[in-house]
Amino acid sequence: MTALLKLACGLALVVAVVAPPPRAQPPPPHQPTEEELNMTSETMGLEYKNYLEEVVKMLEQDAQFKDILANATDEDIQSGSVADKLHVVDPSIRSKLDELKRIELDRLRRKATEAFELSNGLDRNTIREPHHLDHRNPHTFREEDLRKLIHKTTKDLEELDRQRREDFKRYEMEKEFKYQEQLKTLDEEHKKEAVKKHEEELKKKKEHPKSQVHHPLSEDQLEEVWEEQDHMEREDFNPETFFRMHDVDGNELLDQNEVMALFKTELDKIYNGTDYDPRERDEEMNEMRESTYAEVDTDRDGFISLKEFLASTQHEDYRADQGWEGVNEREMFARQEYEKYEQQRHAEIQRQINMGVVSVATGSVYSVPARRRAAPPAEFYSSVLLTR
User: Where is the signal peptide (predicted)?
Assistant: First the structure.
């Protein structure tokens, strides 16, 4: 990757190039798998991701534009003003950008057509205004196209992180809801057994001492990666060498995939064996990423530069490791939030019952005519949940 990738604001476009090893020839460090390297671009959910990637790859091919970007400030890139220099791009590359834009517009038109088939209220010859390109000029890729793409990507990635946090909160509330509804179906003896088992499971999740899980990018955490993942001697640890070993593409920037690969050892401490919740591990990894960037990415460009990384090693918190409070150790939702969610879920189940969507007996699709349906027992809410 080059400075151009800053306009993707964190979207991983991984180039399989390894930086020359500094100072000495250390053993190869832990290399993220292809699945790990692609996790961000595949899960970010940007609907126009392919278009973004192709535009970035195309612009990287122009040597003059790359030089301009290499000397651009972070503000030039984040504000989109670097797009004003698009006129220097070679005409042959501009022609290919024009074609990429036409292909993207064709994709949007096809989506409009598909939507029309589902809803007669949409004119199949029109496109809802896209914010990642200038649709008023359908034939050429211009400065405004690049500017819009930068701004749209920045906004969308922030929104996707917000949505991820909200989705996880709902996921945790649904687990609590199912547990509470299941208890309502049990007699007193079995309820006590279920509560005891539930409390033991929660205790097991929290049984690792907080001090054993290091704070992301603290000295202890980095030295542990150096020793266990990179197979180096701890006494030889050097921050700059560490950075260059994990800067997989050698651009003196750690992107989000390269940073998240550093958390594997800490995540394995919290989520080991086969009985952990993969959704919770994913959320833990993302929260470590967000914490790291909030503390270290001082220019907020979505990357950690060598300068930022070395500066973070001079802070007092770097050596005074405060540990890490995991997802399982925190309340993910307030009581008031849960009570509102509980009311919504009860109303949803009642609607399903009224519509005959579920069977009182099995929770499956109800095929008996409405006039023959019996009123469901009060505990049916729980039986429906257990069959979902």
Answer: 1-24
**Is residue 170 scored above 90 in pLDDT?**
yes
Provide the Cα torsion 149, 151, 157, 163; round to 10°: -120
87 vs 79, residue with greater confidence: 87
Q: What global pTM score does this model have?
A: 0.61
How many structural domains are present in the chain? Answer: 3
Rounded Cα gap, residues 13 and 17, in angstroms:
12
Amino acid identity of residue 331, one-letter, is E
pLDDT at residue 172 is higher than 90: yes
Dihedral sign for Cα 332, 338, 340, 341, please. Answer: positive
Collapsed DSSP state (helix, strand, coil) of residue 253: strand
Take residue 255 and report the two structure tokens written for it: 């992107």
Tokens linked to 77: 């890139």
Work out the angle at residue 193's Cα, subtended by the Cα atoms of residues 191 and 196, and round it to the nearest 5 degrees: 110
Token pair 């030295």 in the structure block, residue: 223
Q: What is the DSSP secondary structure assignment for residue 368, as one 8-state letter?
A: S
Cα–Cα dist 292/31, whole Å: 20
- Judge contact between 55 and 97, C-beta under 8 A: yes
How long a stretch of residues is the chain?
388
CB 216 within 8 A of CB 292: yes
**pLDDT at residue 106 in the model:** 72
Q: Which phi and psi (to 5°) does residue 320 adopt?
A: -90, 75
206 shares a domain with 126: no
Closest CA relative to residue 72, chosen from 332, 301, 333, 344: 301
293-315 pLDDT, tens digit each: 999 998 877 789 999 999 999 99
Give me Rg for the CA atoms of the chain. 26
Q: What is the CATH number of the domain that holds 292?
A: 1.10.238.10
| Range 80-107 average pLDDT | 80
On whether both 344 and 240 belong to a single domain, the answer is no
Supply the range of the domain harboring residue 382: 335-386
Of 38-52, 206-220, 348-362, where does mean pLDDT reach its minimum?
38-52
The whole-number pLDDT of residue 239 equals 96
